[in-house]
Amino acid sequence: MSTTTSARSPIGCCANSDDVSGGDESSSEPASMRGLANQTWPTFSGLDTQSRPHGTLVGQRRHRTTVRTLYRPRLTGTLTVSQPQETLDLDLQLFPQLGGYLVRVFESPAGQAMSLFTPPFTQEEEAAFLQEIVPTGPPTSRMALQAILKEYGGRLFDALFHDELLVCLERSLDEVRRRNGTLRIKLRLAETPELLSLPWEYLYHRRRNLFLGQSTTTSLVHFFALPDPVRSLTVALPLRMLVIIADAQDLPPLDVEQEWTNLQTALAGLIQREQIILERLPKATLSDLQQALRRQEYHVLHFVGHGEFDEGNLEQAQGRVIFTDDQGYADPVPGEVLAQLLHNERALRMVLLNACEGSRTSTQNPFAGVAQQLVQQGVPAVIAMRHPISDTAAVAFSHEFYAALADGYSVDAAVTEGRVAVSTRLGNSEWGSPQLMMHAQDGLLWRITADPNSLVVDGEAIRQDLDVLPQLMQQSNVRDLVASYRADFAAACRQIDSLSNYKALHDLLHKLQFRCYNVIAQEARRFPDDDLALDNLLNYEVTLQDIVSNLQGVVEEAEFSANETLWLNDLTEAQQRLRQALESMESEALRRVVWLLRRVLALQPSNVNHRLNAAARALRLDTIVQSLRAIQGELRRFHVAATHIEQLENGVAELEHFDTRLNALVVEHDQWQEVQRILGRIEDMMVYDLSELEFSWPDLNARTTALCAAHKGEWVERFFQDAEQLQKALTDNNPARVRSYFQRYRQRAGNRFFQVDTQLKDLCTE
């Protein structure tokens, strides 16, 4: 039995942001419902299961989760929610070539780029730097240490980012700043393992006075591309974390109780708010770990102990973590063995190794280290230490890191939060020790609901449980019974089709704006004089072709009215004119392309979003629930197996809760949308005076107070604080403060509307 620190009531979850790890692209149509339509009424041509589901792009691979989850209602508790931010990738890889390395940027907000890299340090300089940041003598002053970090980090930055790559980085940073987002820098070093030991976490941008690994506008990831993508996992808070503290009798002792106390201290607030359950493995043996994993699913594994790296010969070098045997003596476990044990743990999203040499690997084999082995065997994210860190630094890092994860941050953004905490509180170099390795594409290891009153919604569980009904329809009496409800099922399929079609349009227009138009508009200003601009435009011409082709495919399959999709003509023209502009090198023709794209994006995303919400509002799942419940009641007369009836009951119950959640989100979305309309009107009039705000404030304050009353969390507290400050500024008749607090108040309201809007779209995807 493990030691548990927890509050009792469970907490629920839901979708977080546009695209989550692995991006499960299953159709939003319940397969069983469509199967009923096909099997019972083959004359309905619109219900053909062999056709490409609406919203699935040409060439996309479709995944379906295979784990079946039985229905259990889970109510949520308090959850703090972070401000949503868009994260864009700067994805670069280094390749060996004669005399140095080739660096290639595959993806970025500024397009693609190439450059050369020459390591800026000799082995002696690298060793000297390590000696400075892991001192054994008297501590270096904060100012002197900062100068050392900037010197080494600046040299490494200049060696990596110069010429095309520097232009690409600068444009990418400008773009994410314009969009109030973050830039995730993905370092792919699998082809160059000899470079893994360089101090990448200390990359320093001299001109911007910016450590890339410590900035909240950037994050740094050691990325490994693996064949199997990370699939999204919906997690019902609290997150479950298993802690292993391995203190072997024959190795330098650890203060075990202090280590455990440190973690409890770091996570005390999260435990109290029921966001994390902290469990400790009583004995740090490999067999005890295997038993614990068999009995309970964990989302995070946190290891504290010793580690080692056996260099041996180059081919057999490997990292180990030191567990204990049954007698308490050291049991060195190779990273490969630990990775095999964790390979099948689907719920496990992350491992944190607070052990010496946890991230060290061979100069010949990028997967020789413990952390790298875990990633290779499927753990989505692993955090390991480049060098030992103090207890104080470990507590500071853990507290902010886990708090950010529970707030819904991506793992890379959470690592940055942890680093900032260490840097600001301790003022030393330990902030650069945590090293993040992952193969999850977007860093969102799980999806957590932002609504403390929501129910967990699992679209895949609904589909799998309702799939039992077509099986039962092999019996003629069941088939006749279901046929009597065919009108209800057919209507539901049409509604789901409509919802799916608008969701597909929404996603493609989002991709057009953020993955295509922004770069084309940016490079158009430099065209035709800049060769790099021409290269990027040629690349994004292909992207535009794909998006337009996929939009046309959705429109052809859907039953949109002609007036709804007239804007597609503008995109077709833009696609043709872009090709002509690049062939003729005419800047005027390119400006026409930008104007056409801007005209579409000025109106259509909003229009499609409105229709998507209207389709969600029109989806009457309650009728289907009533029909299925009636069928379920009749099945008992037909001597159907109890397990099949139970499975159907689970599916109907999940569907009913899905409907409840959908209706609640639609109502809340409409209410916040009205708040946004009022705030926009007030802001327009504030150019002249404050009278519109003064007259509207009592009603506006009452509306938002009622909207927030059903929720808990830090965002609610801050919203109320801003409202109180705005109220006081109005009472004091202080125009400057009124304008300042109004802008903060409006931003908070906008953030909440964005969260609800995102949740609604994600729920539509389910």
List the helices and strands and how they pair.
Layout lengths: L2 E3 L25 H10 L46 E11 L2 E8 L5 E5 L5 H11 L8 H19 L3 H15 L3 E7 L15 E2 L4 E2 L6 E6 L15 E7 L10 H11 L1 H5 L3 E5 L5 H10 L4 E6 L1 E4 L7 E7 L5 E5 H8 L7 E6 L14 H7 L4 E5 L5 H16 L4 H16 L7 E5 L20 H8 L1 H5 L3 H8 L2 H39 L6 H27 L9 H18 L2 H32 L2 H15 L6 H44 L5 H19 L4 H18 L3 H31 L1
Parallel strand pairs: 2-5, 5-8, 8-17, 9-10, 9-11, 11-15, 15-16
Antiparallel strand pairs: 1-10, 2-3, 3-4, 6-7, 12-13, 13-14, 16-17
Helix pairs in contact: 1-15, 5-10, 8-9, 10-11, 12-20, 15-16, 15-18, 16-17, 17-18, 19-20, 20-21, 20-23, 21-22, 22-23
Describe the protein.
- There is one protein chain.
- This protein has 766 residues and is an alpha/beta fold.
- The protein has four domains: 1-79 and 453-475 and 643-766, no CATH class; 87-223, no CATH class; 239-438, Rossmann fold (3-Layer(aba) Sandwich); 485-619, Four Helix Bundle (Hemerythrin (Met), subunit A), CATH 1.20.120.
- It is built from 23 helices and 17 strands.
- It has helices spanning 31-40, 123-133, 142-160, 164-178, 256-266, 268-272, 286-295, 335-342, 370-376, 391-406, 411-426, 459-466, 468-472, 476-483, 486-524, 531-557, 567-584, 587-618, 621-635, 642-685, 691-709, 714-731, 735-765, and strands spanning 3-5, 87-97, 100-107, 113-117, 182-188, 204-205, 210-211, 218-223, 239-245, 276-280, 300-305, 307-310, 318-324, 330-334, 350-355, 381-385, 434-438.
- The chain has a twelve-stranded mixed sheet with strand order 1-10-9-11-15-16-17-8-5-2-3-4, sandwiched between helices.
- α8 runs parallel beside α9 (370-376) and α12 (459-466) runs antiparallel to α20 (642-685).
- Residues 1-84 and 449-456 have low confidence and may be disordered.
